[in-house]
Sequence to fold (573 residues):
Amino acid sequence: MPLTREPHSGDLAHDEPQPYLWTMNIGPQHPATHTTLRLVMKLDGERVIDAMPDIGYLHSGFEKLGETLDYNQYVTVTDRMNYVSPVANNVAWHHAVEKLMGIEVPPRCQYIRVIVAELARICDHLVCNGAVGLDTGAFTFFMYVFNPREFVLDIFEAMCGARFTNSYTRVGGLTHDITPEAIELIRAFLKKMTTVLRDSENLLNRNRIFIDRTKGVGVLTREEAINRSASGPIARASGVERDLRIDEPYLAYKDFDFNVCVATAGDSYARYLVRMAEIRESMKIIEQAVDNLPPGPVNIGIDERARLPESQAVYSTIEGLISHFELVMSNRGLTVPCGESYAATEAPNGELGFYLVGDGTSAAYRARCRPPSFLHFSLFPHLIRGHMLSDVVAVLGSLNIIAAELDR
Amino acid sequence: MTEPSTIEALKAAHSDLTFSEFRGQTRVVVPLASIHDVLTTLKEQLGFDYLVDVTCVDYLEYRDAADRFGMVYLLARVETNERITVRTFVNDPEPTVPSVVDLWEGANWLEREVWDLFGIRFDGHPDLRRIVLPDAFQAHPLRKDYPLQGRGERHNFPVLTRAEG
Fold:
């Protein structure tokens, strides 16, 4: 692949042929890229003049698969998109499917989905910040924040049996209801997390080396963040007060009291701080959700004909039997209108939306995923220009690029 | 999600737009010739400063569809959280739409992806190369005539049997 851009009439001096510039390649397999992506950089000494990202190493045709797999099967593919917080993708996918079908899940299901999505957000932010710390030399911090991630995975295991690729949601419900044991685990985790956060923030927030490595590095202004479609913590670190949980409250988010975390500096350090602050807000949300978990069914009713009924209902009621039959027969399945809709959720990385085209069958006619990493990685050349080579990892880490979501 | 005032202003500024509503989302279908003008109006005058997504749908096998490709522009406004979906339709051969990179910088990679996977050209794009597939790739795999398995780039590879491998 030719890694030069077509000449344009800009005023950028680095587009002129400069034979003394070095070209340096990072990736696709490199410890600091964390995932499979490649960067080709033009260097003037140690200064990065331009960077050319080359992606596609993990392209696996997820959107093409979405046109073949039905709405419940595809959830396993969404697990593999942002694999640091898979359950947040599950929630986003079925939120979009339910929007297309025009059904609303019961309150208990909404609350549980909020809980798992926020647990995934904590997990994602811990891993992202841990990786930034690791890349900038703070190995202890990485260990401190990677440890509680293990507890989140334990909670997921207690909730749905899978630690990592959860596939927890279904159209109109969940695979399993939450158990008292899982709630106990969540409460214990929240208690532990307070200490972990305090300890790890003590390690890094005022750490001279970390601040020197990240402050003023990779600055994204508010106007650029909007114009270049940044979302999530990256936009909020640049002063864009956009959080879909508040702006377009989906699921049960309007019931909870939490803050939107915004910083104005727009550099890697601000992105680190925003993520740390969001972990605290997520903990607040989980606490409220666990305390006020509504009783009732976790799946949508039999009449909606979206979720397989319980075996008790199948064996003892005619409605349950018919519903089960209609859903499992290959020529029947879900009732989906011929329409197009877009629904987005605030995933840990930013706005994760699905543009779905339904054609009346059980599989989507088109399942477009709006991946936040894809748009964030396109910011990278802009953010790194003029910085030193060692700043590449500080910027790349703070963007939290997940290549599987980037390439899909 | 779209304010009535936005729709009125858009109707006043441009003719032959078709508005429809589905699941609370406003969708406006724009003729191909005026798509760039409508998007400019939306950005410059109506304040839709955030480009959420640019994507495409291939309507080859869709029931009652008249056109081949439908472009989708999802726009949002950061201050008010208004959203609007702008659609336009393009056809074979050589489907081409004007690029919106001059309006939103974020469209750069999104349009490259649409070119890569659907083969729709963007007039005025600064850097229209394939993005997720290798440059030597010939086909545009998200088109509906591209099979999920079998044809395509696979003929370049020698077919090995179990015994040979």
Remarks:
- The helical segments of chain B are 4-13, 35-44, 107-118.
- DSSP finds three helices and seven strands in chain B.
- The radius of gyration of chain B is 19 Å.
- The interface with chain A takes residues 1, 22-23, 25, 27, 49-53, 55, 57-58, 61-63, 72, 74, 78, 81, 83, 85, 104-110, 113, 117, 126-135, 141-142, 148 of chain B (CB under 8 Å).
